[in-house]
Specification:
The structure is a homodimer of 576-residue chains.
Chain A: H1 2-23, H2 25-32, H3 46-63, H4 67-83, H5 92-97, H6 105-108, H7 110-128, H8 132-147, H9 162-173, H10 176-188, H11 226-243, H12 246-262, H13 294-311, H14 314-328, E1 346-347, H15 372-381, E2 388-391, E3 394-397, E4 403-407, E5 410-416, E6 423-430, E7 436-442, E8 448-450, E9 453-455, E10 459-465, E11 472-477, E12 482-484, E13 496-501, E14 504-509, E15 529-534, E16 541-546, E17 549-553, E18 565-566, E19 569-570
Parallel strand pairs in A: 3-7
Antiparallel strand pairs in A: 1-18, 2-3, 4-5, 5-6, 6-11, 7-10, 8-9, 8-11, 12-13, 13-14, 13-19, 14-17, 14-18, 15-16, 16-17
Chain lengths: 576, 576
């Protein structure tokens, strides 16, 4: 399953570069590098889209070394290096505009850009062994460490993102100043120092918009701009883990769990308001006006990954699975390099697109604010890293996909038709002479068996022994379709159920119901639901049939045009 | 009932003038008039807030002649006259900024300002007999007629409003050019000529935002920015009526009915999206994120009034009643001059205000964009005009309030404790010798009796005879509380009911349920609902009791702080 998605992403990455050329992002850097003449196009944050693309290219090159891709990456790296100021600062747009640094930090994204540069640089160093971009990152990071921090400039950047980049750079370089600066940014926030100064009637004057209203250690909730809030929590998680700050770690874990309990859509996406691209109040989760920005889902994925690594708790791997299948994957077309910025859970009959990013347009090749497409590219390119973790005597498999896994001397092949089929066969290829623990995640939604023995839902089924090549461990997950009901306080889905099978959330879409008004369809919760493999449909899916309804996996919607679609299905009529 | 509201408005009008001074709107005009020095403050549309206040002052003066109010009105009139350019054009902000006219029509509101000036001028002429402001209006209108129209400038203003003002000015002056220009503006729209040119990823590039996507004769729906769409439809209705254009009249009537059927909240308010202050798609009516801007409700009220006058159909008077009690009145505090811009139907427990106009702030004294407060002032000041219509041998009573009514030689007194009590006693004070038809509206929601005889719900109960002084006609409306269920396609209120009594929509609010989470309250539709007069509460209301719930009239919410509140009450739990 994922191999097909990764292959499509492989094809999409060069297309993405071309679009960054056409939009002008790469041109800005080339002009700043002195490679060509021209004026700045777009916004200050446009450099970050290039850096995200470079990160995607690096991870993709690590996965599948393609010389042409490497050539493009090297060429861009040289451009970025040449565009850097002598003191390490780097921003092509401000340079081309002749505008000063750090004067509109609340909106400029200068440090956000740096964070993405750092992540790209670490990826490039690891993937290619070439440290050119890493050197650029180090110079920028040194400049930031000289400029911000205790006793230095007091303002903070409006858009978090630099924090996680600094920690990543610290991990790669062992330079403690970067971790210290990230830790400083985490605790400096929450006092309105990242907020637009002066009066503004809009959310630009709201500290919550910048994750800047309450210090994160005291926060009860994520609030405001969803991507900012999640990216900031992600950075705080990195800092907590690397510094061993248990209080901060408890805070971010509490925030994740609060978000999952009260502010997350059934798809795993977050963000309920178009206005301010924001979290709603608790239980404000409208399917039709869900914002569920792709970047926010990717942030949630990365955040869950860190919490999984730090705690080993299967619920975070469950979250990653839910988000990957139902919040990240829906954002990209099955076969075209086209993307959703906003991931609605309900496209109404007759819905009219009012803005560029409206999902009623269908997926689009690019956006004026193109944060999402290269974010998907880097996520899909780095997907293999999320599948399993291990140590000398352990292998934990978190996500089920066909492929080969290795942890030290322990190597296995995984064969499965997941998510269409619940059978996962792990065959040992190599094994050390000492005992190894093989841990297989059992999702919260599934009873399961391992080698025929029943294991509980939610957690890891562990098999510990001396394995021999050829040994097999067979996990059987229960993919019986299930009905999901929302919390009582969610009004927007009252009297409705969502249908899921395995990790996939399902939806009804107009093409299967050509004569119906999608809003008039009802699901009978008492009717049996039958899975039906349809290799011919939507690059191969298993549909679900319930009475006269046919449901498709949500991720596959809008691949036949932007039709009416909905996930939450009423089970009853409005009545007194 | 309404006498109290009008008295509060009388007190609020001088406060409103003071706030226009403090905010700077009046200062802009004074500087433009050469009365004082200074720089422009605020936006180009800020003049309109002054004109709306002047209209309110004029109607209020007509209702209750107060010399001090007249003095303020005269003083402001002189200022406005002095701020006018030699050729009739008038805008204080552009003049102070030295910026050219008509270069950013999609956003500048220059003609919208003119529309409000025209309405104020007609009100002032009728209320005071002083034509100074009318002369200013005529000079501006002549300038517009010379500047726009067939063969002249092709662009249109982004914010409708001038159309209804032009027709009002035509009615007062009989100058056909004004009606012709209004008619031109109506049919010129719908081809993207009012839309921001060039690419913009936001709704600013969406012709629907400007009511400019589809010619109004072909439109199936109101869409985009709610106030713009409603104001434009209002102007089109004026044009249709004054020109006798039956096709156009059918179109606006169809649009009103479509809006009422699919895009209107139970309160009568319209607008479902914060993003773009816009109508949603059909059936997109979220209580918690309802925008329901006060100005949009006032536009709907004025539109329904015009349709009532043109058709005599009681359903439009029903709409006016619903809007007045539940969409306009909730926007103003019971005793303070404080206002809602956004009229939510559900303030969630723990809701956090994110922007200045968030209803979670409670009502506010003023707004940076202060279109709503003076709009309420002019509406409440002109309320007596909406109560009844008549001719020599007819009197139609549309709204029930205590007071004296006259139509020719036929004069009556109305006594009622409506909306708390359903009994309306009409006592004839003077009557001509010939028969007169007295028509009393019977709302769609009420069975009724007139002088003990049953009359059908929905329509006018007509009594035609030769009346004598002292004759009484007694209307008894049925105020039994009723449960309202939304259309099946409205997801946001599925499994919920709203409770109404007479014209009033009710709500639960935290103060009556101090220990409950408002979201956890359930209404048992089988339980009886008991009205209970509470003269001590919220300036005197009748509350409703149902089992352990106590409901207050929605208009009175947020007068004890911005507490959790909701109109739509779940009757059941979420379940499969």
């Amino acid at each position: 399953f994922w191999a097909d998605r990764i292959a499509a992403n492989q094809a999409a990455i060069p297309v993405g570069r071309q679009r960054l050329v056409e939009a002008g992002n790469i041109g800005n850097l080339r002009v700043a590098a002195g490679e060509q003449a021209g004026a700045a196009r777009g916004a200050v944050f446009w450099d970050s889209d290039v850096f995200k693309w470079m990160e995607a290219a690096a991870w993709e090159y690590a996965r599948s070394p393609d010389p042409e891709l490497r050539g493009h990456l090297s060429e861009l790296t040289a451009t970025v290096a040449a565009a850097q100021d002598g003191d390490g600062y780097l921003n092509s747009v401000l340079r081309l505009r002749g505008e000063p640094r750090y004067t509109q930090l609340w909106m400029s994204h200068e440090l956000y850009n740096a964070g993405h540069l750092f992540q790209a640089a670490v990826a490039a160093a690891r993937a290619t062994g070439d440290n050119t971009l890493l050197d650029v990152a180090v110079r920028f990071a040194d400049h930031l460490a000289d400029t911000f921090g205790p006793g230095e400039r007091g303002e903070l950047e409006g858009h978090p993102g630099v924090e996680t980049g600094l920690v990543e750079l610290y991990r790669e370089t062992d330079e403690r100043r970067y971790l210290d600066l990230a830790a400083y940014f985490i605790d400096a926030r929450g006092h309105g120092r990242a907020t637009k100064p002066g009066f503004d009637p809009s959310h630009y004057a709201d500290p919550a918009h910048y994750a800047d209203r309450v210090p994160i250690r005291e926060a009860a909730n994520l609030e405001g701009h969803a991507v900012r809030a999640v990216y900031f929590a992600l950075g705080a998680t990195d800092v907590a883990i690397e510094t061993g700050d248990a209080e901060l770690f408890d805070a971010v874990r509490r925030l994740f769990d609060a978000t999952a309990a009260r502010k997350q859509h059934v798809t795993g996406g977050v963000g309920s308001r178009w206005d301010g691209e924001a979290f709603g109040d608790d239980y404000e989760l409208p399917p039709d006006r869900a914002y569920a920005e792709t970047c926010a889902a990717i942030g949630m994925l990365q955040w869950a990954w860190r919490l999984l690594l730090a705690t080993g708790e299967a619920k975070y791997a469950d979250q990653m699975e839910r988000i990957l299948y139902n919040a990240v994957l829906p954002a990209v077309s099955l076969t075209e390099a086209e993307y959703f910025y906003v991931n609605t859970l309900h496209r109404r009959t007759g819905a009219r697109p009012d803005v560029q990013r409206s999902p009623s347009n269908g997926r689009r090749p690019w956006f004026n604010c193109a944060c999402c497409p290269p974010n998907i590219m880097r996520t899909l390119a780095s997907l293999p890293a999320y599948v399993a973790t291990g140590s000398l005597d352990q292998l934990q498999i978190h996500q089920y996909a066909e492929g080969a896994l290795r942890s030290g001397d322990f190597a296995v092949d995984v064969r499965t038709a997941y998510p269409w089929d619940g059978r996962v066969v792990v065959t040992v290829r190599e094994a050390p002479a000492h005992p190894v623990e093989l841990a297989l995640r059992v999702p919260q939604w599934s009873e399961a068996t391992v080698d025929g023995e029943r294991v509980a839902a939610g957690g890891y089924a562990r098999t510990s022994r001396v394995f021999r090549p050829g040994d097999q461990v067979v996990l059987e997950l229960d993919l019986t379709p299930r009905l999901i009901v929302a919390d009582q306080r969610v009004d927007a889905t009252r009297g409705c159920v969502a249908v899921a099978r395995g990790p996939l959330v399902y939806a009804v879409e107009q093409p299967e119901h050509p004569d119906a008004v999608i809003e008039d369809l009802r699901l009978d919760p008492a009717a049996p639901i039958h899975p039906e493999p349809r290799p011919d449909l939507l690059s191969g899916v298993t549909v679900l049939r319930s009475a006269d309804l046919t449901l498709i996996p949500y991720y596959a919607w809008a691949n036949r045009g932007p039709h009416a679609m909905r996930i939450w299905l009423p089970t009853l009529e409005n009545h007194r």
